[in-house]
Amino acid sequence: MMTKPKYWPTVITSDNYPEFMARCSGRMVRKGQDMAGYFLEKPNPETVIYEVYEAECIGNNCSAITILKPGKVGKEYYMTKGHFHEDDESGETYFCLKGRGIVIMQTRDGRTDEVWLVPGTVACIPPGWAHRTVNVGKEDFVMLAIFPVNAGHDYKSIEKSGFIKRVIEKNGKPQVI
Ligand code: PAN
Ligand code: ZN
Questions:
Q1: Over the stretch 56-113, which tens digit does the pLDDT of each residue have?
Q2: Which residue out of 34, 39, 68, 80 has the highest number of ligand 1 atoms within 8 Å of its CB and is therefore the one to mutate?
Q3: How far apart are CA 73 and CA 11, in angstroms?
Q4: What is the 3-state secondary structure (H, E, C) of 27-71?
Q5: 68-78, pLDDT tens digit by residue?
Q6: Centroid of ligand 1 to alpha carbon of 6 (angstroms)
Q7: Are strands 72-73 and 61-68 parallel, antiparallel or unpaired?
């Protein structure tokens, strides 16, 4: 049976994304105190590292905007926790809206890769690849993520073993080591 469409089409741009954020039902803030053990050095507990604004999932698609602050803990750039999707068939797409970032990815069998993002660039994260975003710029890094409703988030695996690669500043420039 056909149901009457509930939603209107939307356009999200580098300029109007705050309107999308204002309509989001979920907002999550990650501070240094939530990220103990993720960085090589101890972050300031009260410092906000990133925020995530989650919209209501529409049909099979969920969307969220991440605002990752600029800054470093020691020589290591601010980053998200990173996770695998619980569903092995669920990939994700990251659209960069603002700033300069790197998406670090890795598989459970130890393959690793990274893509650099600037506005207008899109990262296609295949199913089975854990993903973490790193802000290597001097302003907020803002990206829109689209992922399947049944993706699920497995943080435990990364909490336990971490990512193989890290992004640090060397000679004033970001370097993946
Ligand atoms: C993103 C991430 C968001 C925050 O929406 O959830 O960037 O990163 P962590 O979830 O690793 O803290 C996404 O990948 N969703 O699936
Ligand atoms: Zn994800």
A1: 999 999 999 999 999 999 999 999 999 999 999 999 999 999 999 999 999 999 999 9
A2: 80
A3: 35
A4: EEEEEHHHHCCCCCCCCCCCCEEEEEEECCCECCEEEEEEEECCC
A5: 999 999 999 99
A6: 26
A7: unpaired
- Per DSSP bridges, beta strands 84-85 and 153-154 are antiparallel
Entry field: residues in the chain:
177
Q: Which residue has the tokens 């309509």?
A: 23
Å from CA of 149 to ligand 2 middle: 11
Place of tokens 């803030």: 29
- Whether domain 17-176 has CATH 2.60.120.10: yes
Q: What is the overall mean pLDDT for the chain?
A: 96
Cβ atoms of 119 and 149 within 8 Å: the answer is no
The tokens describing 26, both together, are 């979920």
